[in-house]
Design goal:
Length: 312
């Protein structure tokens, strides 16, 4: 059976975010975050903080420390024990910004200053591995960590992207130093070559995949791989490739001004006509009609903050 290196496994984890902020917590302040399917990232810029509510109990953070609540559990963060808290809507709702805003909580002088982010995560296999610790932590002594430099780098337009890329690095550093995570990798079902092949498709959907190429990628014979893929996934490799490409095509139509022919070429189709036929079969509507419907919906919802048309 084919196995992965740790680097391959970690390379399939993706973090995305456009929700970052700096939080000034007064001595009387604090906030709470309800349960979600995201990772909450906290870096202490000044003062100390306490995270409560996760399965690992209370965690004290010192200046320069970084903590990531990976489990999605509801939790609170305070500058002092016993402070009243309320939901911090900016983080909980995942509001978007280009430059991290500064949010003040509580009355009086700032006791704790935090850099905080809400990160959407894509796990290998599509599901949160239950064996991962609920909280990952990096202490300030780690030479890779300079939270003050991170705060400065996030200033100005595009700061959210810098913070998200840095968070990915910190996540990987914290992950590979945790004994539980090493055990997860060594026992992971991702050693399953079929799960691995599907993740290759999801990670690189525009590659010219064939059954033969995928079988070789996971060190299996073509016939055995094809039969086992259908048995475990319930669909052929070609079907999965098409699904992934159509999802990306829909995003390009909604979020870009690329022409249909350009989208077709970008996602791996040699002709616009072949792409349009496949897209229409998949969604029941041509690429041009889908784009027109989105544009009409966007105009209709221009007065709202988050009007977002969908294919539903």
């Amino acid at each position: 059976m084919a196995t992965w290196s740790l680097s391959e496994f970690l390379n399939l984890i993706e973090l995305r975010s456009q929700t970052w902020c700096v939080i000034d917590v007064a001595s009387s302040g604090g906030f709470s975050i309800p349960h979600s399917e995201t990772i909450l990232f906290y870096a202490v810029l000044e003062g100390t903080a306490k995270i409560c509510g996760t399965a690992v109990g209370s965690i004290n953070l010192n200046p320069g420390d970084i903590a990531m609540v990976v489990s999605g559990e509801a939790h609170t963060l305070r500058s002092q024990r016993g402070n009243a808290t309320k939901v911090l809507e900016f983080l909980h709702k995942g509001e978007y910004a280009d430059v991290p805003p500064v949010i003040a909580l509580g009355r009086g002088r700032t006791a704790t200053r935090l850099l905080a982010g809400r990160l959407k995560v894509r796990w290998p296999g599509g599901q949160h591995p239950k064996e991962i610790p609920p909280l990952l932590r990096i202490k300030s002594g780690d030479k890779l960590i300079d939270v003050e430099a991170l705060e400065r780098a996030a200033e100005g337009s595009g700061g959210m992207a810098i913070l998200t890329q840095a968070a990915m690095l910190f996540f990987l550093v914290a992950f590979r130093t945790q004994p539980e995570c090493e055990l997860l990798f060594s026992e992971s079902s991702c050693h399953n070559p079929i799960a691995r092949a599907r993740q290759f498709i999801e990670r690189h959907p525009f590659t010219d995949w064939t059954v033969d190429k995928l079988a070789k990628k996971v060190a299996m014979g073509r016939s055995n791989f094809a039969a086992r893929f259908v048995a475990e996934i319930g669909r052929t490799p070609y079907t999965i490739v098409t699904e992934e490409r159509m999802k990306h095509a829909a995003k390009f139509l909604e979020q870009s001004s690329l022409k249909v022919a350009e989208i077709a070429a970008r996602i791996g189709y040699r002709s616009e006509a072949a792409f349009s036929r496949r897209f229409t079969t998949y969604y029941g509507m041509s690429p041009g009609k889908i784009r027109k419907r989105w544009q009409e919906a966007q105009r209709a919802s221009a007065s709202t903050a988050d009007g977002s048309p969908s294919l539903q």
